[in-house]
Amino acid sequence: MGKKYCIFAAQFLPHMGGIENYTYNISKELIRRGNQVVVITNNTIDSPIHENIEGIKVLRFPCYNFINGRFPVMKLNKDFWKIHRYLKRQEYDIVVINARFYLHSIYAAVYAKCKGIKSICIEHGTSHLSVHNKCLDFIGGVYEHMHTFVLKRVCRDYYGVSEACCAWSKHFHITSKGVLYNAVDLEKIEKLKAQAGRDFRTEYKIKDDAVVIAFTGRLLKEKGIYELIEAVERYNHTQNEKVYLLLAGEGEEMDYVKRHQSEYIVPLGRLKFEDIISLLVQSDIFCLPSVSEGFSTSALEAAACSCYIITTERGGTKELVAGEEYGAVMPDNSVEHIYRAVDRAVRDAELRKKGQELCYNRLKDKFTWQHTTDNLERIVQE
Q1: In total, how many domains does the chain have?
Q2: What is the pTM assigned to this prediction?
Q3: Host domain of residue 79
Q4: Are 49 and 163 within one domain?
Q5: In terms of DSSP bridges, do strands 63-66 and 71-74 run parallel, antiparallel, or are they unpaired?
Q6: Would you say 339 and 155 are in contact if contact means Cβ atoms under 8 Å apart?
Q7: What InterPro entries does the database record attribute to this sequence (predicted)?
Q8: SS3 240
Q9: Tens digits of per-residue pLDDT, 122-141?
């Protein structure tokens, strides 16, 4: 018999992001296995209050969009109470909370406790949220500790999308019960790889033997955008063999990226998923020099497309890049460390090839939605 899952995610499609992607894919896999899924989210971009997305029933609370939409807070108006009354009438086998940080999460935990339903909270972060203002970041940190203190009184079971997320939970005196890994739909990616997609090398006049570095994701300061661009500019200034940096995504640092646009540094803006796969297939190296990361979907997609991965110790990507032979895991995202990692990867094609193969095989064995959903279903059964 299929189970009934109620998944709370503060943000969901059509809003794009890591938590949204996680919720969407795990919901699809659960439905494919004969389960029912309802996603309770916030209406961050004026979407319908009720919607069906590929069999996923979606209900959206009205909300205020604080911190440029990064922190939605529910409005207690008639639409909120309408959804609240609907939920009171429902019976679910489990409430899954993505993620710990939001007021939305406390509502979810209280709802589950009042209904006598098992709830679990999945951690997606590895550091406090930053708005790059010391005073506001301090206030945010105090809030997060107070928020988590309340949440722990209601929800007892915590997991992470990576071991790094579980380690971060210890900062709040939370002992995680396990990992529900972030993952990719490898079957879908393989189908897209086999198709003739957008040709970025031809479009930007890049020779077949030139090394292409890709970045895909939100253009945020914490992703290491400044350091990555500076490292590539320094490399091209000091080396005869030039490398290309293609950046796919949008975000707060788009203006900075555009100011550094050149023949070798190319901002692509937001791309469709199939175009992202085409870009990664045509790239040699994927670089994600984040200072804060749960477990990057972009890195998983890059591994699925056989890119050599350069990343930092922060977050879960090092659980994919499991050793020196898999890729480069830097101690931090300084320009010097990025420069050295790029230089080594560009000079040693065999190093890149071995890392690409090892990461792809590790991804296939451990980081697919089938594996993650197996573990989630096991939790429900237990």
Answers
A1: 2
A2: 0.88
A3: 4-183+368-381
A4: yes
A5: antiparallel
A6: no
A7: Glyco_trans_1, Glyco_trans_4-like_N
A8: coil
A9: 999 888 888 778 898 899 99
